[in-house]
Amino acid sequence: MIGTYLFKIGNFGVPSMGVCILVGAVLAVFLSWLLRKESSLDWNGEFVDSIIWGVLLGFVGMKILYWIVTPDEFLSAIKQGRIFELLTTGMVFYGGLIGGILGIFICSRRKKKSFFEFSDLFAPCFCVAHAFGRIGCLLVGCCAGVEPGESVLFGAATYNGACAFTYADGHQHLPVPLMESVFLLILCVVLIFILKKAKYLGTVTGWYLVLYAVWRFVIESFRGDAERGIYGLFSTSQWISFAILIAGIVILVTAKKRPRPTPWKDFKEEELVVPEPEETEEPKEE
Length: 286
Known about the structure:
single chain, globular, two-stranded antiparallel sheet, 8 strands, two-stranded antiparallel ribbon
């Protein structure tokens, strides 16, 4: 395990998680640029603005949900004046997703465009950014899976230690973050294929929400960090997965009401037809 920092010189260190998030964000923006012609949105105005809104509110959402699911840590940091640490450590992806969606929604309203024109194009890009964020989790040792011998799938089975990683705490854990990174990169490819074939707005967004919600609900049962919050039978993220799944199904069912605008790649320059000058009779001399 690399640990919290990629390297550290004195009091200065380059955080592993921060680097992974930065790389993921850059690659996500680059992918959105590659896919820009699959949308009818204008890159320089509508698209760039939506990226800014989505990133800013996404970060706020990640922090707020993290504080909600770890109230003791939040209150302790406030009492001890560890404000910088409070702002720079700890994030929850679902909070970022909800915040990012809100940011894109605000931008779509300002630009008077359909929300799904933005979200369909961003869904594969979310997957890339999220995948690299999970690699950061693996490096710093958070979001760890169960240890060998612990129960999984709600007690239906026991983890036998296959493919276990040794974390910084010296214990072996199932590498859940790595498993999720692989899944997200596969999901990215699937969503790009759907984007190129989709005839209705919301198709890509709906499948993204449905597929990720199902995956997240299942993979949560392999997580070993129960302190994130358990309410009833399920964790916070599993309850959110239920809501995300229902939202995705509704979006898919109603997609036919939203025909997709013509993507930029299908725009064709109209052929300019230059009219032939009309023949005029020259005046006859009398």
